[in-house]
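User: structure tokens for SMAD6 protein, please.
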Amino acid sequence: PESPPPPYSRLSPNDEQKPLDLSDSTLSYTETEATNSPNITPGDFSDASTSPDAVKRSHWCNVAYWEHRTRVGRLYTVYEQSVSIFYDLPQGNGFCLGQLNLENRSETVRRTRSKIGYGILLSKEPDGVWAYNRSEHPIFVNSPTLDIPNCRTLIVRKVMPGYSIKVFDYEKSCLLQHTADLDYADGPYDPNSVRISFAKGWGPCYSRQFITSCPCWLEILLSNNR
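Assistant: Done. Predicted tokens:
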């Protein structure tokens, strides 16, 4: 089949983080895929929302890329079941962060961008949304369904290279919809959003208290229950 099962379908569902099988064809970009992919020119990137077929389908999330407090580029709309979010290796299908231009980037942001590499693979599954760390550096994740219910302490999970994590659990999300809204010090709270930082962590255990202090991070805006 064109889209073989993801590697985690062969692993125990009990583990919060699971090792990534890099030999799986779904995670390996081939020359054929690169050839069939739209050409990406500097200052632009492949966007699934531009295809005629995509208009007929509903999207399941939008992805925003941020550098500190500045959003860079437009929202990337995801229609397919999975999407690769990477820097510039390879020049294939997905959200290419290296093509997003911004003047006067700080040296800290430039260094962090160079660590994104193959980035992450974001996949929508029946039980929730999974993120695979395909880079050579850790990623850091915060999500409403990863937090402890009714706990006011921000929980940020560190995911090492080659591992995956369920960043959003649909069942837990339904339960959370009935809980009281909490006041968060770092801004408005969205029960259907996931935040992922590349290479740099934030929260109580780090010098960066808020994700807006991280050089390069993603905001995954899920369309479920919206």
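User: Anything notable?

Assistant: The first helix runs from residue 31 to 36.
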